Amino acid sequence: MRVPLLTSDFIDRAELVYGDRIGVIDEPDQPARSLGSLTYRELARRGRAIQAGLDELGIGVGDRVAIVSHNSARLLELLYAVPSSGRILVPVNFRLQAEEVAYIAEHSGARVLLVDPELETSLSAISAEHKFLLGEESDDALLRFEAQPRPWSEPDEDATATLNYTSGTTARPKGVQLTHRNIWINSVTFAMHMQMSDRDVYLHTLPQFHCNGWGLLYSAAGVGATNVIIRKIDGAEILRRVEKHGVTFAAGAPAVWNMALDAAAQLDGEIPGHGRTRIVVAGAPPPSRTIARVETELGWEFNQIYGLTETTPLLTVNRPRAEYDELAVEDKATLLSRAGVPGLGTRAKISDSGEILVRGNVVMGGYWDNPDATDEAIQDGWFHTGDGGTVDEGGYVTISDRKKDVIITGGENVSSIEVEDAVFSHPSVAEVAVIGVPDDRWGEKVTALVVLADGQTATEDEIIAHVKSKLAGYKTPKAVEFREDIPRTSTGKIQKFKLRQEFWEAGQRQVN
Amino acid sequence: MRVPLLTSDFIDRAELVYGDRIGVIDEPDQPARSLGSLTYRELARRGRAIQAGLDELGIGVGDRVAIVSHNSARLLELLYAVPSSGRILVPVNFRLQAEEVAYIAEHSGARVLLVDPELETSLSAISAEHKFLLGEESDDALLRFEAQPRPWSEPDEDATATLNYTSGTTARPKGVQLTHRNIWINSVTFAMHMQMSDRDVYLHTLPQFHCNGWGLLYSAAGVGATNVIIRKIDGAEILRRVEKHGVTFAAGAPAVWNMALDAAAQLDGEIPGHGRTRIVVAGAPPPSRTIARVETELGWEFNQIYGLTETTPLLTVNRPRAEYDELAVEDKATLLSRAGVPGLGTRAKISDSGEILVRGNVVMGGYWDNPDATDEAIQDGWFHTGDGGTVDEGGYVTISDRKKDVIITGGENVSSIEVEDAVFSHPSVAEVAVIGVPDDRWGEKVTALVVLADGQTATEDEIIAHVKSKLAGYKTPKAVEFREDIPRTSTGKIQKFKLRQEFWEAGQRQVN
Q: Do B470 and B388 fall within a single domain?
């Protein structure tokens, strides 16, 4: 018997088996907007009410529902409900500028747009057929609690469940179509490789829009773990939540854990979660010194994964093996600084040019309305990650260079070309190259190298202010350096390799 | 991207990631036949050599390879290799009589037949195009170590991987087609729900032929756990293996754990695996007293599952929830005596007549060469388990009555109709009904109620000896009772319900 692999499997099981259990504890900092604590039964009931509301609004199967929001219980329930209702959810990065959000809403053809009240002003100019502020307004508009709610939709497992826009090498973000099957396989293998269970309490230190919180919120529902929402990332607050809710599991970019480490250094007494909490890190491999500090100073188990939005994201996982238990912490940290080994059913290999190619059911269905980009990314059954790397004999992938012009800063992908466009729009700029420069806090720091036009002047602050008016804050260069020229290849392509070289030790590894 | 879900995913990952780790420790009791300890790399290498050997023999994609064997490393590697090579493995119950094995070999159209040397004599009359004794003979015939072995085959995920013959309500066993997708979903969700990891050491207390060891051997390879073979089930030997190999995980019928409990009662000193080993029980729900004894006397974690060969088998799982930790052991045992909650993606419901119906990707592709039986078993997208039961508000399934005339004794399915046929073939028997009677050791004990023909005589021993000459020992009645008549319905159907009633307390639950 074949039954489609669907996102509804996760929330269905949570409702049936863990109906009385707290499914989510919402952010308490804004009591008026918080949903408080919801059981999985309530989450599922609200989810089906959203399905009924979309039915009533006339939003058809396969139509897009976009949401721009910080982490919240409402975003969580939409991630459960919208794909399970047969529509496509478009979770948008809340850090993007209005113009960028407008592009995504337009490109995805979103018929419904839901906006975090905190972003109301900045996104006021964006229109949609149905636009609601997240909270009471969206509840009133979308939730229809019917006496006999219909069961979840049953789309094909290859139908698109979410559209996640990601910055690539081009100026405009691309819409990554993640299918129900993608999400199912990702979430189940992730839960399996991390031994998630109903004894876990999962703290959302990862932006939920980010490839759907890496799919871990589906894993949590599938095994009956409780979700704890955290809206603004702050080291001390993370430690407080870990203590208050008995958090056992969290995931996020290296920058998050640096904040937790800093906060822990200020803390008197025992570290919450010591010997119990395990964390999963990705976005950029942190220095092995950070890994060692997580294990010794926090007493949390360090796990690394490697993945992309286009891969749902789980490609490889580096989990402490039994053999590591006997090692000195530095040696263990070195082993854990690799990207890891492929998850079940995923294959990785290195192309002749040194690029990591992958194959498996976590690879996206394609780029939305962009067959050319899809064909370029997936060739002969292998997805081209754009990252350079190596695979050792034990199957461990190590990332050595990012092939695409993408900077990963604080766990966010930034297209260097997009930033270059914005810098170049300043009238004094003649030439620009934007690169990532190693940074303990951000992993990579967006840095612009600028050649000024003849007779023109501009300061670092002026250029930063100019870009900030156009792009999200995290995309704005943190530093601008002025140069006499920018090295180019004979065909005129900027030699970013050379530019990065001066910032990177030994020049061996050009991503952080 | 869609990539087929295949059995080769498991052994591939074990080879790549855990190549140096011991994949299997073979039974040591027969040194001449034992493969000793093999790493996953060696297991994978031998598996591809089997693929090459089958290629050379001209065994085509989709052809059947049958094997009749006690648990062994060679049976394990065939379970990995044959489906991954694109052929269909037919693992046959080693307890069956020659005539029954012959039927299965014939019905499945097996081109290759592999026989445990211990069964050489009893199965000598069965012929096949290629017949080999398992061991050196089968290694010589099948293993072709090539310099450049071809990669595993890539059949469709809906292709049949194994054919597992099971006794149903009819006299002849039916061939259950388990697809690659069935096995993949079963093994991954099983591993997820049991939190299996590369720190596990898995003892094969379950017959490997039995729906492929419940698929747990694929789970083990997928996460890098070590398999420990045990050939003959003996309580003291189980405890010794748990101690010697640091076993953390095992599965089997209730009878197995009764043996371990008996052996533990004789043991001086600490129980091996105390506080570490978890066991999974199915086949028949054991009395809650047994569950409590496993937790207190062995200190092993008790888990129950419910499933059938037709469901790969994982339907429901009952794993101790965090909430149970605070309960008295008797209360916990009562909760654990339920069949459990559906695994991810599986749905269960109760039909109007009280039968448990299930739906999910673990349900078989169909019965081999038997479309009528398939259509009868799967109706409107639901598989009819033949078991009566209830589902409570928390989603927990409890089995209350077996609808089909199947007796489960010592974890084996016995068709009562098949046994009735054999009893009836005794010339003195006029009428017979075979039922399961509750038994602490066997779960249910095969019991024949016999009406003798006018003027004929026969003793209990004579009838048992007569059946034993025709059927496997476990199918032979353990008791024969003589009656004046057998109650029948108006249409002439035996009222087994009434017959069972006198043997079962309170008449509430008619399966053990």
A: no
CATH number reported for the structural domain that contains residue A444 in this entry: 3.30.300.30
Q: Are residues A413 and A398 in the same domain?
A: no
Q: Are residues A394 and A411 in the same domain?
A: no
- A261 contact B CB<8A: no
Highest mean pLDDT: which range of A166-175, A239-248, B381-390: A239-248
Contacting B residues, span 202-221, partner chain A, CB-CB under 8 Å: none
Q: How confident is the model at residue A491 (pLDDT cuts 50, 70, 90)?
A: very low
CB interface of A with B, residues 403-422, below 8 Å: none
Q: Last residue of some domain: B356, B384, B402?
A: B402
Count of structural domains within chain A: 3
Q: Tell me if chain A has a CB within 8 Å of the CB of B195.
A: yes
Same domain, B470 and B391: no
If asked whether residues B453 and B501 sit together in one domain, one would say yes
pLDDT at B407: 86
| Ranges in chain B, pLDDT < 50 | 169, 491, 506-509, 512
The answer to whether A341 contacts B197, with C-beta atoms less than 8 Å apart, is no
Is A198 a residue whose pLDDT tops 60? yes
Q: Give the pLDDT of residue A387.
A: 84
What does the pLDDT average to over A481-487?
Answer: 88
User: Model-level pTM?
Assistant: 0.86
A194 to each of A190, A256, B185, B186, how far by Cα in Å? Answer: 6, 20, 17, 18
Pair B413, B398 in one domain? no
**Interval A28-55 mean pLDDT:** 94
Element (H, E) at A411: none
Residue A394 falls inside a structural domain: yes
CATH classification at residue A365: 3.40.50.12780
A195 in reach of chain B (CB within 8 A): yes
Is residue B237 domain-resident? Answer: no
* Cβ contact B1–A364 (<8 Å): yes
Instruction: Name the token pair of B18.
Output: 């855990």
Interface of B with A in 84-123 (CB under 8 A): none
Q: Do A355 and A454 lie in a common domain?
A: no
B230-267 confidence digits (pLDDT tens) = 999 999 999 999 999 999 999 998 889 989 999 999 99
**Three-class SS state of B55:** helix
Say if the Cβ atoms of B197 and A197 lie within 8 Å: no
Structural domain of B431? 407-507
Cα separation, A218 vs A76, whole angstroms: 10
| Set of chain A residues whose Cβ sits within 8 Å of the Cβ of B193 | 223
* Inter-chain CB proximity A1 and B322 less than 8 Å: no
- A7: Cβ contacts below 8 Å, ≥ 6 apart: A80, A83, A84, A161, A180, A183, A184, A218
Domain final residue pick, A404, A429, A451:
A404
Chain B residues lying within 8 Å of A196, measured CB to CB? 192, 195
| Cβ-based neighbours of A477, under 8 Å, separated by 6 or more | A419, A423, A434, A446, A447, A448, A463, A464, A467
Place of tokens 């200020």: A266
Average pLDDT on A360-367 reads: 98
Pick from A219, A201, A210: which is nearest to A313 by CA?
Answer: A210
